[in-house]
Design a protein that fits this description.
There is one protein chain. By secondary structure, the chain is mainly alpha-helical. It has one domain. Helices cover about 70% and strands about 0% of the residues. It has 3 helices and no strands. The longest helix is centred in the middle third of the chain and has 30 residues. The protein is elongated and about 50 Å long.
């Protein structure tokens, strides 16, 4: 891996994260940071796709349908 130059602010964030004990190594911290960035990239792509769909005139799914799906998905059933 190439060496990199980082700002004092970024270095302080790294030191603080390492001091928390959550990460066993700098590699582990970098790995998690990159996974978070990849996840963020996926969210941004999904938002861009949704915006493009809305801009194309597609009204999408009516809110009533979305709410009904969510209600069914998270409905708690109780045995009597």
């Amino acid at each position: 891996m190439p060496s990199v130059s980082i700002s004092t602010g970024v270095e302080q964030m790294i030191v603080a994260r390492m001091a928390s004990g959550r990460y066993a190594s700098h590699d582990e911290l970098l790995h998690e940071a990159l996974l978070i960035l990849a996840d963020e990239d996926q969210h941004v792509a999904a938002l861009q796709e949704a915006i493009a769909e809305a801009d194309s005139g597609n009204p999408g799914t009516p809110l009533e349908v979305v709410f009904e799906r969510l209600k069914r998905k998270y409905e708690v059933t109780t045995a009597t």
